[in-house]
Design a protein that fits this description.
about 65% helix; 21 helices; alpha+beta; about 575 residues
Protein backbone atom coordinates (compact mmCIF):
# COMPACT_ATOMS: atom_id res chain seq x y z
CA UNK A 1 0.00 0.00 0.00
CA UNK A 2 2.89 2.38 0.78
CA UNK A 3 4.28 1.86 -2.73
CA UNK A 4 0.86 2.52 -4.29
CA UNK A 5 0.45 5.70 -2.22
CA UNK A 6 3.90 6.86 -3.34
CA UNK A 7 2.95 6.19 -6.97
CA UNK A 8 -0.26 8.21 -6.63
CA UNK A 9 1.67 11.05 -5.01
CA UNK A 10 4.12 11.02 -7.95
CA UNK A 11 1.26 11.19 -10.48
CA UNK A 12 -0.29 14.08 -8.57
CA UNK A 13 2.99 15.98 -8.63
CA UNK A 14 2.84 15.85 -12.43
CA UNK A 15 -0.90 16.34 -12.95
CA UNK A 16 -1.09 19.18 -10.44
CA UNK A 17 2.20 20.93 -11.12
CA UNK A 18 1.93 24.64 -10.41
CA UNK A 19 1.96 25.42 -14.13
CA UNK A 20 -1.11 23.24 -14.64
CA UNK A 21 -2.88 25.25 -11.94
CA UNK A 22 -1.88 28.48 -13.64
CA UNK A 23 -3.26 27.12 -16.93
CA UNK A 24 -6.67 26.40 -15.38
CA UNK A 25 -6.89 29.82 -13.76
CA UNK A 26 -5.66 31.41 -16.98
CA UNK A 27 -8.36 29.59 -18.96
CA UNK A 28 -11.01 30.94 -16.61
CA UNK A 29 -9.65 34.48 -16.90
CA UNK A 30 -9.49 34.17 -20.71
CA UNK A 31 -13.13 33.12 -21.16
CA UNK A 32 -14.36 35.52 -18.47
CA UNK A 33 -12.90 38.47 -20.35
CA UNK A 34 -13.67 37.08 -23.81
CA UNK A 35 -17.33 36.56 -22.94
CA UNK A 36 -17.63 40.00 -21.37
CA UNK A 37 -18.13 38.51 -17.89
CA UNK A 38 -20.71 35.87 -18.80
CA UNK A 39 -21.20 35.30 -15.06
CA UNK A 40 -23.69 38.17 -15.19
CA UNK A 41 -26.01 36.46 -17.67
CA UNK A 42 -25.64 33.14 -15.89
CA UNK A 43 -26.97 34.75 -12.71
CA UNK A 44 -29.67 36.89 -14.35
CA UNK A 45 -30.87 34.99 -17.44
CA UNK A 46 -30.05 31.46 -16.24
CA UNK A 47 -32.78 31.25 -13.54
CA UNK A 48 -35.54 32.10 -16.02
CA UNK A 49 -34.28 29.39 -18.39
CA UNK A 50 -34.30 26.69 -15.71
CA UNK A 51 -37.77 27.87 -14.61
CA UNK A 52 -38.98 26.43 -17.91
CA UNK A 53 -40.17 29.48 -19.85
CA UNK A 54 -37.97 28.48 -22.81
CA UNK A 55 -38.66 24.73 -22.71
CA UNK A 56 -40.03 23.34 -25.98
CA UNK A 57 -41.15 19.71 -26.45
CA UNK A 58 -40.26 19.91 -30.15
CA UNK A 59 -36.57 20.59 -29.48
CA UNK A 60 -34.13 17.66 -29.66
CA UNK A 61 -33.18 16.13 -26.32
CA UNK A 62 -34.46 13.94 -23.51
CA UNK A 63 -34.82 16.18 -20.42
CA UNK A 64 -35.64 19.82 -19.65
CA UNK A 65 -33.17 22.52 -18.60
CA UNK A 66 -33.92 22.11 -14.90
CA UNK A 67 -33.37 18.34 -15.02
CA UNK A 68 -30.13 18.79 -16.96
CA UNK A 69 -28.87 21.28 -14.37
CA UNK A 70 -29.98 18.97 -11.55
CA UNK A 71 -28.23 15.98 -13.12
CA UNK A 72 -25.03 17.99 -13.50
CA UNK A 73 -25.33 19.49 -10.00
CA UNK A 74 -25.96 16.08 -8.49
CA UNK A 75 -22.48 15.15 -9.72
CA UNK A 76 -20.90 18.34 -8.37
CA UNK A 77 -22.90 19.05 -5.20
CA UNK A 78 -21.76 16.00 -3.33
CA UNK A 79 -19.21 14.88 -0.83
CA UNK A 80 -16.72 17.24 -2.43
CA UNK A 81 -18.75 19.98 -0.75
CA UNK A 82 -18.62 18.22 2.63
CA UNK A 83 -15.47 16.12 2.59
CA UNK A 84 -13.50 17.98 -0.09
CA UNK A 85 -13.74 21.34 1.66
CA UNK A 86 -12.63 19.71 4.91
CA UNK A 87 -9.64 18.25 3.09
CA UNK A 88 -8.74 21.62 1.59
CA UNK A 89 -8.74 23.34 4.97
CA UNK A 90 -6.99 20.54 6.86
CA UNK A 91 -4.21 20.38 4.24
CA UNK A 92 -4.02 23.97 2.98
CA UNK A 93 -5.47 26.07 5.77
CA UNK A 94 -8.23 28.73 5.67
CA UNK A 95 -6.68 30.44 2.65
CA UNK A 96 -7.75 27.50 0.50
CA UNK A 97 -11.33 28.81 0.75
CA UNK A 98 -10.39 32.08 -0.94
CA UNK A 99 -8.93 30.25 -3.92
CA UNK A 100 -12.04 28.07 -4.06
CA UNK A 101 -14.06 31.27 -4.48
CA UNK A 102 -11.76 32.47 -7.25
CA UNK A 103 -12.00 29.18 -9.11
CA UNK A 104 -15.76 29.10 -8.56
CA UNK A 105 -16.16 32.52 -10.19
CA UNK A 106 -13.81 31.78 -13.08
CA UNK A 107 -15.28 28.31 -13.42
CA UNK A 108 -18.63 29.84 -14.40
CA UNK A 109 -17.07 31.06 -17.66
CA UNK A 110 -15.27 27.75 -18.25
CA UNK A 111 -18.52 25.81 -17.75
CA UNK A 112 -20.37 28.07 -20.19
CA UNK A 113 -17.66 27.51 -22.80
CA UNK A 114 -17.36 23.73 -22.53
CA UNK A 115 -21.14 23.14 -22.36
CA UNK A 116 -21.86 25.43 -25.31
CA UNK A 117 -19.23 23.54 -27.32
CA UNK A 118 -20.80 20.25 -26.35
CA UNK A 119 -24.22 21.45 -27.49
CA UNK A 120 -22.80 22.63 -30.80
CA UNK A 121 -21.33 19.20 -31.53
CA UNK A 122 -23.63 16.77 -29.73
CA UNK A 123 -24.84 13.68 -31.56
CA UNK A 124 -28.62 13.90 -32.08
CA UNK A 125 -29.04 11.07 -34.57
CA UNK A 126 -31.62 9.86 -32.06
CA UNK A 127 -33.22 13.15 -30.88
CA UNK A 128 -34.65 11.46 -27.78
CA UNK A 129 -31.29 9.98 -26.76
CA UNK A 130 -28.55 12.51 -27.59
CA UNK A 131 -24.88 12.01 -26.84
CA UNK A 132 -22.44 14.80 -26.11
CA UNK A 133 -19.30 15.88 -24.33
CA UNK A 134 -15.71 16.83 -25.16
CA UNK A 135 -15.16 13.51 -26.95
CA UNK A 136 -17.82 14.40 -29.51
CA UNK A 137 -16.48 17.95 -29.78
CA UNK A 138 -13.00 16.64 -30.58
CA UNK A 139 -14.20 13.97 -33.01
CA UNK A 140 -16.62 16.12 -35.01
CA UNK A 141 -14.73 19.44 -34.89
CA UNK A 142 -11.46 17.94 -36.12
CA UNK A 143 -13.35 15.94 -38.74
CA UNK A 144 -14.59 19.22 -40.20
CA UNK A 145 -10.95 20.20 -40.58
CA UNK A 146 -10.15 16.89 -42.34
CA UNK A 147 -8.38 15.61 -39.22
CA UNK A 148 -10.90 12.95 -38.26
CA UNK A 149 -8.24 10.50 -37.10
CA UNK A 150 -6.73 13.04 -34.72
CA UNK A 151 -10.15 14.00 -33.39
CA UNK A 152 -11.10 10.38 -32.74
CA UNK A 153 -7.80 9.79 -30.94
CA UNK A 154 -8.31 12.82 -28.69
CA UNK A 155 -11.88 11.68 -28.03
CA UNK A 156 -10.67 8.22 -27.01
CA UNK A 157 -8.05 9.71 -24.69
CA UNK A 158 -10.68 11.89 -23.06
CA UNK A 159 -13.02 8.93 -22.58
CA UNK A 160 -10.27 6.91 -20.90
CA UNK A 161 -9.62 9.79 -18.50
CA UNK A 162 -13.37 10.14 -18.02
CA UNK A 163 -13.66 6.51 -16.96
CA UNK A 164 -10.73 6.94 -14.56
CA UNK A 165 -12.33 9.98 -12.96
CA UNK A 166 -15.78 8.36 -12.84
CA UNK A 167 -14.43 5.38 -10.93
CA UNK A 168 -12.28 7.40 -8.51
CA UNK A 169 -13.66 10.85 -7.66
CA UNK A 170 -17.18 10.25 -8.93
CA UNK A 171 -17.60 6.83 -7.34
CA UNK A 172 -14.99 5.51 -4.91
CA UNK A 173 -14.40 8.83 -3.13
CA UNK A 174 -18.13 9.13 -2.45
CA UNK A 175 -18.53 5.53 -1.28
CA UNK A 176 -15.42 5.68 0.92
CA UNK A 177 -16.61 8.81 2.71
CA UNK A 178 -20.08 7.39 3.34
CA UNK A 179 -18.64 4.11 4.60
CA UNK A 180 -16.22 5.86 6.97
CA UNK A 181 -18.86 8.25 8.27
CA UNK A 182 -21.48 5.56 8.83
CA UNK A 183 -18.99 3.31 10.60
CA UNK A 184 -17.77 6.16 12.82
CA UNK A 185 -21.26 7.15 13.95
CA UNK A 186 -23.33 3.96 13.78
CA UNK A 187 -20.73 1.19 14.06
CA UNK A 188 -21.93 -0.24 10.75
CA UNK A 189 -19.01 -1.87 8.92
CA UNK A 190 -18.05 0.24 5.93
CA UNK A 191 -18.51 -2.59 3.44
CA UNK A 192 -22.19 -2.94 4.39
CA UNK A 193 -22.74 0.71 3.44
CA UNK A 194 -20.96 -0.07 0.18
CA UNK A 195 -23.36 -2.90 -0.64
CA UNK A 196 -26.42 -0.75 0.15
CA UNK A 197 -25.08 2.08 -1.99
CA UNK A 198 -24.39 -0.29 -4.87
CA UNK A 199 -27.94 -1.65 -4.78
CA UNK A 200 -29.51 1.83 -4.73
CA UNK A 201 -27.32 3.12 -7.55
CA UNK A 202 -27.82 -0.01 -9.64
CA UNK A 203 -31.59 0.32 -9.39
CA UNK A 204 -31.52 3.90 -10.69
CA UNK A 205 -28.89 3.76 -13.44
CA UNK A 206 -30.57 0.87 -15.23
CA UNK A 207 -33.32 3.32 -16.20
CA UNK A 208 -30.99 5.61 -18.17
CA UNK A 209 -30.85 9.41 -18.34
CA UNK A 210 -34.60 10.01 -18.04
CA UNK A 211 -34.80 8.14 -14.73
CA UNK A 212 -31.55 9.77 -13.59
CA UNK A 213 -33.00 13.19 -14.46
CA UNK A 214 -36.18 12.55 -12.47
CA UNK A 215 -34.32 11.22 -9.42
CA UNK A 216 -31.74 14.00 -9.34
CA UNK A 217 -34.35 16.72 -9.94
CA UNK A 218 -35.98 15.55 -6.70
CA UNK A 219 -32.86 14.81 -4.66
CA UNK A 220 -30.77 17.90 -5.43
CA UNK A 221 -33.19 20.60 -4.18
CA UNK A 222 -34.02 18.59 -1.05
CA UNK A 223 -30.44 17.87 -0.07
CA UNK A 224 -29.16 21.40 -0.77
CA UNK A 225 -31.98 23.09 1.17
CA UNK A 226 -31.60 20.66 4.09
CA UNK A 227 -27.87 21.26 4.28
CA UNK A 228 -28.08 25.05 3.98
CA UNK A 229 -30.86 25.42 6.55
CA UNK A 230 -28.88 23.50 9.14
CA UNK A 231 -25.77 25.40 8.20
CA UNK A 232 -27.59 28.69 8.84
CA UNK A 233 -28.37 27.44 12.34
CA UNK A 234 -24.71 26.69 13.10
CA UNK A 235 -23.49 29.97 11.63
CA UNK A 236 -26.13 31.96 13.51
CA UNK A 237 -24.69 30.68 16.78
CA UNK A 238 -21.26 31.96 15.71
CA UNK A 239 -22.41 35.06 13.85
CA UNK A 240 -20.12 37.41 15.79
CA UNK A 241 -17.10 35.44 14.55
CA UNK A 242 -17.94 35.80 10.86
CA UNK A 243 -16.06 39.06 10.13
CA UNK A 244 -12.87 37.68 11.69
CA UNK A 245 -13.26 34.41 9.76
CA UNK A 246 -13.55 36.20 6.41
CA UNK A 247 -10.47 38.23 7.28
CA UNK A 248 -8.65 35.00 8.16
CA UNK A 249 -9.65 33.41 4.84
CA UNK A 250 -8.39 36.34 2.75
CA UNK A 251 -5.24 36.85 4.81
CA UNK A 252 -4.31 33.15 4.74
CA UNK A 253 -4.61 33.11 0.96
CA UNK A 254 -1.51 35.31 0.72
CA UNK A 255 0.56 34.70 3.87
CA UNK A 256 1.49 31.47 5.71
CA UNK A 257 -0.90 30.07 8.32
CA UNK A 258 0.95 29.08 11.47
CA UNK A 259 0.57 25.62 12.98
CA UNK A 260 -1.96 25.34 15.79
CA UNK A 261 -3.58 22.31 17.39
CA UNK A 262 -4.47 19.71 14.77
CA UNK A 263 -3.29 21.96 11.90
CA UNK A 264 0.41 21.54 11.13
CA UNK A 265 0.86 24.79 9.25
CA UNK A 266 0.58 25.80 5.62
CA UNK A 267 1.86 28.36 3.14
CA UNK A 268 -0.03 30.59 0.74
CA UNK A 269 1.17 28.25 -2.02
CA UNK A 270 -0.37 25.20 -0.33
CA UNK A 271 -3.61 27.14 0.22
CA UNK A 272 -3.68 27.97 -3.49
CA UNK A 273 -2.92 24.41 -4.57
CA UNK A 274 -5.39 22.62 -2.30
CA UNK A 275 -8.08 25.26 -2.76
CA UNK A 276 -7.84 25.03 -6.54
CA UNK A 277 -7.71 21.22 -6.58
CA UNK A 278 -10.73 20.85 -4.33
CA UNK A 279 -12.70 23.56 -6.17
CA UNK A 280 -12.02 21.95 -9.55
CA UNK A 281 -12.95 18.57 -8.10
CA UNK A 282 -16.10 19.98 -6.54
CA UNK A 283 -17.52 22.10 -9.39
CA UNK A 284 -15.77 20.17 -12.19
CA UNK A 285 -15.04 23.30 -14.22
CA UNK A 286 -12.58 22.31 -16.93
CA UNK A 287 -13.08 18.58 -16.45
CA UNK A 288 -15.58 18.24 -19.28
CA UNK A 289 -17.95 16.07 -17.26
CA UNK A 290 -21.10 18.18 -16.90
CA UNK A 291 -21.33 18.88 -20.67
CA UNK A 292 -22.25 15.20 -20.95
CA UNK A 293 -25.33 15.73 -18.77
CA UNK A 294 -26.29 19.02 -20.39
CA UNK A 295 -26.07 17.43 -23.84
CA UNK A 296 -29.30 15.58 -23.01
CA UNK A 297 -31.26 18.85 -22.57
CA UNK A 298 -34.13 19.67 -24.90
CA UNK A 299 -33.03 22.83 -26.69
CA UNK A 300 -31.99 24.12 -30.08
CA UNK A 301 -29.93 26.96 -28.58
CA UNK A 302 -26.43 25.75 -27.61
CA UNK A 303 -25.50 28.95 -25.75
CA UNK A 304 -28.71 28.83 -23.70
CA UNK A 305 -27.64 25.58 -22.09
CA UNK A 306 -24.16 26.99 -21.63
CA UNK A 307 -25.62 29.89 -19.64
CA UNK A 308 -27.55 27.43 -17.47
CA UNK A 309 -24.35 25.49 -16.85
CA UNK A 310 -22.66 28.69 -15.68
CA UNK A 311 -24.82 28.53 -12.56
CA UNK A 312 -23.22 25.28 -11.41
CA UNK A 313 -19.92 26.62 -9.99
CA UNK A 314 -21.81 29.43 -8.28
CA UNK A 315 -24.23 27.07 -6.52
CA UNK A 316 -21.66 24.40 -5.84
CA UNK A 317 -18.57 26.35 -4.80
CA UNK A 318 -19.54 29.90 -3.90
CA UNK A 319 -22.67 28.87 -1.98
CA UNK A 320 -22.50 25.28 -0.69
CA UNK A 321 -18.72 24.96 -0.27
CA UNK A 322 -18.58 28.30 1.50
CA UNK A 323 -21.18 27.11 4.00
CA UNK A 324 -19.10 24.06 4.82
CA UNK A 325 -15.93 26.13 5.14
CA UNK A 326 -17.52 28.68 7.46
CA UNK A 327 -18.90 25.91 9.68
CA UNK A 328 -15.50 24.21 9.96
CA UNK A 329 -13.65 27.46 10.63
CA UNK A 330 -16.18 28.97 13.05
CA UNK A 331 -16.27 25.84 15.21
CA UNK A 332 -12.47 25.57 15.37
CA UNK A 333 -12.56 21.85 14.57
CA UNK A 334 -9.74 22.27 12.02
CA UNK A 335 -7.18 23.45 14.61
CA UNK A 336 -8.69 21.89 17.74
CA UNK A 337 -6.77 20.86 20.85
CA UNK A 338 -5.88 17.17 21.30
CA UNK A 339 -8.93 14.91 21.50
CA UNK A 340 -7.34 12.37 23.87
CA UNK A 341 -4.85 13.48 26.57
CA UNK A 342 -1.77 11.37 27.25
CA UNK A 343 -1.48 9.41 30.46
CA UNK A 344 2.22 9.24 29.64
CA UNK A 345 4.00 10.54 26.54
CA UNK A 346 4.90 7.45 24.46
CA UNK A 347 8.52 6.39 24.58
CA UNK A 348 10.64 6.88 21.44
CA UNK A 349 13.24 4.58 19.93
CA UNK A 350 15.19 4.44 16.68
CA UNK A 351 14.85 1.38 14.46
CA UNK A 352 15.99 0.34 11.00
CA UNK A 353 12.71 1.60 9.53
CA UNK A 354 12.86 4.97 11.30
CA UNK A 355 11.79 6.56 14.56
CA UNK A 356 9.25 4.46 16.43
CA UNK A 357 6.92 5.51 19.24
CA UNK A 358 5.94 2.80 21.71
CA UNK A 359 2.44 1.34 21.77
CA UNK A 360 0.04 3.60 23.62
CA UNK A 361 -2.93 2.56 25.75
CA UNK A 362 -6.11 4.59 25.18
CA UNK A 363 -8.93 5.12 27.67
CA UNK A 364 -12.61 4.53 27.08
CA UNK A 365 -14.53 2.00 25.04
CA UNK A 366 -15.82 4.17 22.16
CA UNK A 367 -13.22 2.79 19.79
CA UNK A 368 -13.24 0.33 16.91
CA UNK A 369 -10.39 -1.84 15.77
CA UNK A 370 -8.46 -0.20 12.94
CA UNK A 371 -9.65 3.30 13.91
CA UNK A 372 -7.05 5.89 12.92
CA UNK A 373 -5.46 8.46 15.20
CA UNK A 374 -2.85 11.18 14.66
CA UNK A 375 0.18 12.24 16.66
CA UNK A 376 1.66 15.69 15.97
CA UNK A 377 5.45 15.93 16.21
CA UNK A 378 8.16 18.50 15.62
CA UNK A 379 11.00 17.20 13.42
CA UNK A 380 12.82 18.10 10.19
CA UNK A 381 11.75 21.08 8.12
CA UNK A 382 9.23 20.27 5.39
CA UNK A 383 9.52 21.60 1.86
CA UNK A 384 7.13 24.41 2.76
CA UNK A 385 9.28 25.58 5.67
CA UNK A 386 7.17 24.16 8.50
CA UNK A 387 8.55 21.49 10.80
CA UNK A 388 5.43 19.80 12.19
CA UNK A 389 4.39 16.37 10.95
CA UNK A 390 1.59 13.87 11.42
CA UNK A 391 2.29 10.30 12.51
CA UNK A 392 -0.55 7.87 11.97
CA UNK A 393 -1.62 5.36 14.58
CA UNK A 394 -3.97 2.38 14.34
CA UNK A 395 -6.22 1.24 17.18
CA UNK A 396 -6.28 -2.43 18.19
CA UNK A 397 -8.00 -4.40 20.96
CA UNK A 398 -6.70 -7.05 23.32
CA UNK A 399 -7.82 -8.53 26.65
CA UNK A 400 -6.69 -5.46 28.61
CA UNK A 401 -8.35 -2.83 26.39
CA UNK A 402 -7.56 -0.63 23.41
CA UNK A 403 -4.06 0.41 22.35
CA UNK A 404 -2.39 2.22 19.48
CA UNK A 405 0.40 1.06 17.20
CA UNK A 406 2.21 4.04 15.69
CA UNK A 407 3.67 4.03 12.19
CA UNK A 408 7.43 4.41 11.82
CA UNK A 409 8.55 7.96 11.11
CA UNK A 410 11.41 8.65 8.69
CA UNK A 411 13.36 11.77 9.64
CA UNK A 412 16.92 12.95 10.08
CA UNK A 413 15.78 14.72 13.27
CA UNK A 414 14.52 13.04 16.41
CA UNK A 415 10.77 13.84 16.60
CA UNK A 416 9.38 15.66 19.62
CA UNK A 417 5.71 15.26 20.54
CA UNK A 418 3.72 18.49 20.30
CA UNK A 419 0.96 19.02 22.83
CA UNK A 420 -0.30 16.83 25.60
CA UNK A 421 -2.31 14.28 23.63
CA UNK A 422 -3.26 12.91 20.25
CA UNK A 423 -6.09 13.33 17.78
CA UNK A 424 -8.79 11.20 16.30
CA UNK A 425 -8.29 11.08 12.54
CA UNK A 426 -11.30 13.00 11.29
CA UNK A 427 -10.93 12.74 7.53
CA UNK A 428 -13.10 14.41 4.91
CA UNK A 429 -16.83 14.36 5.67
CA UNK A 430 -16.21 13.10 9.21
CA UNK A 431 -14.40 16.36 10.06
CA UNK A 432 -17.40 18.37 8.84
CA UNK A 433 -19.75 16.17 10.86
CA UNK A 434 -17.68 16.76 13.99
CA UNK A 435 -17.90 20.51 13.35
CA UNK A 436 -21.70 20.28 13.51
CA UNK A 437 -21.46 18.05 16.59
CA UNK A 438 -19.29 20.60 18.39
CA UNK A 439 -22.21 23.04 18.23
CA UNK A 440 -24.96 20.61 19.14
CA UNK A 441 -24.04 17.00 19.99
CA UNK A 442 -25.70 14.61 17.58
CA UNK A 443 -26.38 17.25 14.90
CA UNK A 444 -23.47 16.15 12.75
CA UNK A 445 -24.25 12.52 13.34
CA UNK A 446 -27.69 12.81 11.80
CA UNK A 447 -27.50 15.76 9.44
CA UNK A 448 -24.17 15.02 7.81
CA UNK A 449 -24.90 11.30 7.71
CA UNK A 450 -28.20 11.91 5.89
CA UNK A 451 -26.68 14.58 3.64
CA UNK A 452 -23.66 12.39 2.89
CA UNK A 453 -25.88 9.52 1.81
CA UNK A 454 -28.04 11.77 -0.38
CA UNK A 455 -25.04 13.55 -1.86
CA UNK A 456 -23.17 10.31 -2.47
CA UNK A 457 -26.11 8.55 -4.12
CA UNK A 458 -26.83 11.48 -6.45
CA UNK A 459 -23.17 11.99 -7.36
CA UNK A 460 -22.46 8.32 -8.01
CA UNK A 461 -25.60 8.11 -10.16
CA UNK A 462 -24.64 11.07 -12.35
CA UNK A 463 -21.04 9.95 -12.74
CA UNK A 464 -22.23 6.52 -13.78
CA UNK A 465 -23.98 8.21 -16.69
CA UNK A 466 -20.83 10.14 -17.58
CA UNK A 467 -18.80 6.96 -17.66
CA UNK A 468 -21.55 5.24 -19.63
CA UNK A 469 -21.36 7.90 -22.33
CA UNK A 470 -17.61 7.39 -22.46
CA UNK A 471 -18.20 3.67 -23.05
CA UNK A 472 -20.74 4.45 -25.78
CA UNK A 473 -18.17 6.59 -27.60
CA UNK A 474 -15.43 3.98 -27.21
CA UNK A 475 -17.32 0.80 -27.99
CA UNK A 476 -20.99 1.47 -28.60
CA UNK A 477 -24.01 0.38 -26.57
CA UNK A 478 -23.12 -3.30 -26.27
CA UNK A 479 -20.76 -2.94 -23.29
CA UNK A 480 -22.91 -0.54 -21.27
CA UNK A 481 -24.46 -3.23 -19.05
CA UNK A 482 -21.06 -4.71 -18.22
CA UNK A 483 -19.79 -1.23 -17.39
CA UNK A 484 -22.71 -0.63 -15.00
CA UNK A 485 -22.02 -3.90 -13.19
CA UNK A 486 -18.32 -3.11 -12.75
CA UNK A 487 -19.17 0.42 -11.68
CA UNK A 488 -21.44 -0.85 -8.91
CA UNK A 489 -18.81 -3.38 -7.80
CA UNK A 490 -16.29 -0.57 -7.37
CA UNK A 491 -18.63 1.07 -4.86
CA UNK A 492 -18.22 -1.94 -2.61
CA UNK A 493 -14.47 -2.22 -3.24
CA UNK A 494 -13.97 1.40 -2.15
CA UNK A 495 -15.40 0.59 1.30
CA UNK A 496 -13.06 -2.34 2.04
CA UNK A 497 -10.36 -0.23 3.70
CA UNK A 498 -7.75 0.38 1.00
CA UNK A 499 -7.85 4.18 1.47
CA UNK A 500 -6.89 5.17 5.01
CA UNK A 501 -5.68 8.78 5.38
CA UNK A 502 -6.55 12.24 4.08
CA UNK A 503 -3.33 12.26 2.04
CA UNK A 504 -4.25 8.96 0.35
CA UNK A 505 -7.72 10.31 -0.32
CA UNK A 506 -6.39 13.52 -1.81
CA UNK A 507 -4.01 11.57 -4.05
CA UNK A 508 -6.74 9.27 -5.40
CA UNK A 509 -9.21 11.99 -6.32
CA UNK A 510 -6.40 14.26 -7.50
CA UNK A 511 -5.37 11.73 -10.14
CA UNK A 512 -8.94 11.22 -11.31
CA UNK A 513 -9.58 14.95 -11.63
CA UNK A 514 -6.19 15.82 -13.07
CA UNK A 515 -6.24 13.44 -16.01
CA UNK A 516 -9.60 14.79 -17.21
CA UNK A 517 -8.43 18.40 -16.99
CA UNK A 518 -5.33 17.48 -19.02
CA UNK A 519 -7.54 16.08 -21.77
CA UNK A 520 -10.35 18.65 -21.78
CA UNK A 521 -8.72 22.06 -21.36
CA UNK A 522 -6.83 21.85 -24.71
CA UNK A 523 -10.15 21.10 -26.45
CA UNK A 524 -11.55 24.33 -24.97
CA UNK A 525 -8.49 26.21 -26.18
CA UNK A 526 -8.72 24.86 -29.74
CA UNK A 527 -12.45 25.43 -30.26
CA UNK A 528 -13.50 27.90 -27.58
CA UNK A 529 -13.84 30.66 -30.17
CA UNK A 530 -16.88 28.82 -31.57
CA UNK A 531 -18.56 28.81 -28.15
CA UNK A 532 -17.81 32.51 -27.70
CA UNK A 533 -19.28 33.29 -31.11
CA UNK A 534 -22.47 31.36 -30.34
CA UNK A 535 -22.76 32.96 -26.90
CA UNK A 536 -22.36 36.54 -28.14
CA UNK A 537 -24.84 35.96 -30.96
CA UNK A 538 -27.37 34.59 -28.44
CA UNK A 539 -26.88 37.47 -26.00
CA UNK A 540 -27.23 39.93 -28.87
CA UNK A 541 -30.64 38.56 -29.75
CA UNK A 542 -31.62 38.54 -26.08
CA UNK A 543 -30.63 42.17 -25.55
CA UNK A 544 -32.33 43.38 -28.75
CA UNK A 545 -35.63 41.79 -27.77
CA UNK A 546 -35.62 39.39 -30.73
CA UNK A 547 -35.90 36.49 -28.29
CA UNK A 548 -38.02 36.14 -25.20
CA UNK A 549 -39.91 33.59 -23.14
CA UNK A 550 -42.07 31.35 -25.31
CA UNK A 551 -44.75 30.71 -22.68
CA UNK A 552 -45.50 31.14 -18.98
CA UNK A 553 -43.53 28.93 -16.58
CA UNK A 554 -44.94 25.43 -16.17
CA UNK A 555 -46.30 24.14 -12.88
CA UNK A 556 -43.56 23.07 -10.51
CA UNK A 557 -44.56 19.40 -10.57
CA UNK A 558 -44.36 19.40 -14.37
CA UNK A 559 -40.92 20.99 -14.23
CA UNK A 560 -39.56 18.51 -11.68
CA UNK A 561 -40.96 15.49 -13.51
CA UNK A 562 -40.07 16.74 -17.00
CA UNK A 563 -43.64 16.52 -18.22
CA UNK A 564 -43.40 20.06 -19.57
CA UNK A 565 -41.19 18.82 -22.42
CA UNK A 566 -42.83 15.45 -23.04
CA UNK A 567 -46.08 15.40 -24.96
CA UNK A 568 -48.66 12.82 -23.91
Amino acid sequence: MAEFSAFLAFLNSILWHEYVLYAIVGTGILFTIWSGFSQYHALTHGPSVIRGVYDDPDDPGAINHFQALSAALSATVGLGNIGGVALAISLGGPGAVFWMWVVGFLGMAIKLTEVTLSMLYRNIDDPDNPHGGPMWVAAKAFERKNLGGLGRTIGVIFCLTLLMSATTGGNMFQAWNVGELTQAYFSVPSWISGIILALIVGTVIIGGIKRIGKVTATLVPVMVVLYLLTGFYVLALNITDMPAIFVLIVKSAFVPTEAAGAFIGGTAASAFMFGLKRAVFSNEAGQGSSPIAHAAAKTDEPAREGIVAGLEPFIDTIVVCTFTALIILSTGIWNRAPDIPFTDTPALSQTASGWQFAETRVPGNDWHERDKVILIVEAHERDDGFSRHKIEGTVALDASGYWITWSAFDSTVSPTVVGDGFYRAYVGATLTAKAFDSVKPGLGKWLVSIAAWLFAVSTIISWSYYGEQGMVFLAGEKYVLAYKIVYCMLIVIATLGFIKTDTDLDNVIGVGTGVMVFANIPICWFFGYQAMRAYKEYVGRLKSGRMGPDHPPPHLDELLSGRDVHRN
